[in-house]
Task: structure prediction
Amino acid sequence: MAGMNETPSGERIHIGFFGRRNAGKSSVVNAVTGQDLAVVSDVKGTTTDPVTKSMEILPLGPVVIIDTPGYDDEGSLGELRVQRTRKILEKTDIAVLVVDTTEGFRKVDEELTGLFKERNIPCLIALNKSDISEDTEDHSIGEEMPGLLQRIAKNSDGMIHVSALTGDGINELKNRIAALKPQGEEGRLVADKIDPGDLVLLVVPIDKAAPKGRLILPQQQTIRDILDAGAAALVVQDTELADTLDMIGTKPALVITDSQVFGKVDKIVPPDVPLTSFSILMARYKGLLDDAVKGVAAINGLKDGDKVLIAEGCTHHRQCGDIGTVKIPKWLREFTGKELTFETASGTGYPDDLTPYALVVHCGGCMLNEREVRHRAAKTTAQGVPITNYGTMIAYVHGILKRSLSIFPELADTL
Result:
């Protein structure tokens, strides 16, 4: 299990538990996980902030469990908690609506299932406290509202009676959740673009911004994907790239570089050798690349005084020469010749209102799951704001974007 427990958050299925205050969400979460993950109390509103836990749950595999505050919370603080709960929907792959069968369904339950449906989030309804409900069928409507139960049921993928207290129905709930796990062919970073036996050269600069003693996540994942494809990965610093190409005596099938040294690597790698970046590969993997390629041309229209948002999915200590706060602003100012204003957003702090910005430049999104990356892109473009990503933007301002997309001809041909 150790390998699965080390699975990055962005690669895990995110399961959110939602419902009214005191419906038993936290108790159901604890029963599903087999841990005292969430604080349980008879007092309404005990869960005041989303609680997350990365763990392994069979038969699901590596997951992130999210216990949310009651969606019917009240007052000014309650409204803030509800807003945080809505924010969780942006990253939720599977939703579980927990309903107290002794109180029945309410309009807030219908609202939640409606939100799940709008966002195409698979949803199960866990009818909790069935052990103390004398007749769960009689209690399932709650308020006398014609068609309420039918509308809620229509927005869900099924209902199941459970008892967090006795454990009845919990295993079935886990199996039903597992059945909703997204199916289909897993996305690949690069394996579908190379053949078994190929040599792929990875350019990884080791500078002040590089973490001590390890490679960053996109580099690790790319190496693993290359190995899974039966190809060979050769890792080298940009300072040794030219000598390495001479030494190996053969042309690699592909060169993948850190975007920060795109311009330098482009000058060294022969023009007939395909070249791309970790950031571009990650953007495709997370579903951002199409929007990134469409949005990058907006750089040409930037004017003096325009605001540009630099968005990253993680939070980290900023260092001298940081790519998001130093290098990207420098490259954009040099390329456009304009006086631009830059703002940054890190981690979960992606703005709801993006209209003040002329452009959003997003990282590859390695620490975010695919659903959240796609949500950010859709929210941005829906507000009429172009979005691109680090690798695409850096290749564009260095005049090598078409080459960087050569392994994706359907995108390269649009330039």
Notes: Residues 38-47, 135-144 have pLDDT under 50 and may be disordered. The radius of gyration is 24 Å. Residues 288-397 form a domain with the Rossmann fold fold (CATH 3.40.50.11410). The chain has three domains: 2-179, 191-281, 288-397.
